[in-house]
Amino acid sequence: MLQLFLKKGRERPIINGHPWIFSGAIERVDGDEQEVGVADVLDNKKNWLARGLYNPKSQLRVRLLTWHQETIDQSFFSRRLSRAVAFRAELLTGPTNSYRLCNGEGDFLPGLIVDRYADYYVCQFFTAGMELFKDDIIAALSALIAPQGIFERSEGRVREEEGSEASVGTLTGEPPPELISIEENGHKFLVDVRRGQKTGFFLDQRDSRAFIGTLARERTVLNCFAYTGGFSVYAFAGGAREVVTFDSSHPALELAEKNLALNGFEDKPGELIKGDAFAYLKEIEQKFDVIVLDPPSLAPKRGDIDAATGGYKFLNLHALKHLNPGGILLTFSCSQHLPAELFQKVVFGAAVDAGRKVAIVRRLGHSIDHPVSLHHPEGEYLKGLALRALD
Ligand code: SAH
Questions:
Q1: Rounded CA gap, 192 and 251, in Å?
Q2: Ligand 1 mean position to 230 CA, how many Å?
Q3: Which member of 79, 107, 232, 275 lies 3.0 to 4.6 Å from 245 by CB, making a disulfide possible if both were Cys?
């Protein structure tokens, strides 16, 4: 097995449980440096610290799996995944059959995402190390959950940084149907796991969708960055008078229309509008009682933060201008690089510029199936504020 020695003084975060080791912290590697594989991590004095997956092609050289001397094999993944399965089974009772089963670092399996959509599961192997154990992981998962089928959606920026090609397709069992019908808190949605964004649905927003259901009664709602209409369905179910569903993606809006109909809201007042939300928010005359702002990450990379804060400020400023007195704004950022405090400051700046007095009603974040490791705060990407505008 590869052995990797840290530079002097670089062991503290590892001892404290942080799962990432960057190339700059490594003094030397014993073994085949060019091979992806399991590696033991030792400090400068040769004390054993942890075990993880090594990838020479990534600046993020090692992602740690364990702080015990246990073998990394199918049984290891089976133990980790069975805890993840049990945790969801305990916490997600009721009419919800779709959730994140494994949340990477938050389930102490960095590089692995598993989402459940009714009887199908979608996996993402983001690192070359996890990819090496794909067969073991699929075997372990299949034994635990008896899926109808497991589909893979390993693609995107992290894969490129790892030097891996995209890999998309059925891994085992039946190929999923074009649209999977799922249930979330008793509401029905169609999910396109092959072509949809992320693995097909924004499972991380479940709790905030449920929240809008509690405050939508008799209200007019603008659901901006609506994707397949999740917040819109919950708003109508909560008694909203009218809901405008806005997104730039045509396929997303097509599904949003189907989702509204599936829940019996096809004849309710409101529109589905395709366009650029930045332009729309600036141009419209209409005001709303509730506005949802859930944009895609405006800062995908650390260097994007300045531009991103400008974008968030613009959106929140114009949303606040279109909020009726007493209205509620649910505003989100899913940019991992934008800290919650900075996001709040940006929203504050927007409120000042909009000439509104605003109170925080609730702080919002990932739903419970998206645990974040306390040792890896970088995993906390989604933050939201429920705001009430006074006048
Ligand atoms: N709230 C949604 C998830 C939103 S994801 C849910 O609960 O499911 C972000 C969405 O923003 C995507 O659907 C994407 O198509 C859309 N989007 C990206 N850029 C946009 C823009 N400039 N204007 C409007 N929508 C945009």
A1: 10
A2: 11
A3: 232
List the residue whose alpha carbon is closest to atom 16 of ligand 1. 225
3-class secondary-structure state, position 152:
strand
pTM for the model stands at: 0.96
> Annotated catalytic sites, by residue?
334
Name the residue of 199, 224, 247, 332 to mutate for ligand 1: max ligand atoms within 8 A of Cβ: 247
Query: What is the C-alpha separation between 68 and 49, in angstroms, rounded?
Result: 8
Query: Which pLDDT does position 383 carry in this prediction?
Result: 97
Q: Which runs of E-coded beta strand occur in 46-88?
A: 48-54, 60-66
Q: What are phi and psi of 87, to 5 degrees?
A: -60, -45
* Residue 94's pLDDT band (cuts 50, 70, 90): confident
With the C-alpha atoms ordered 375, 377, 380, 385, is the resulting torsion angle positive or negative?
positive
Atom of ligand 1 nearest to the CA of 209: 7
Q: Cα separation of 177 and 4, whole Å? A: 45
List, for residues 205-251, the tens digit of each pLDDT value.
Answer: 999 999 999 999 999 999 999 999 999 999 999 999 999 999 999 99
pLDDT of amino acid 307: 86
Q: Which residues pair with 149 in a beta bridge?
A: 120, 173
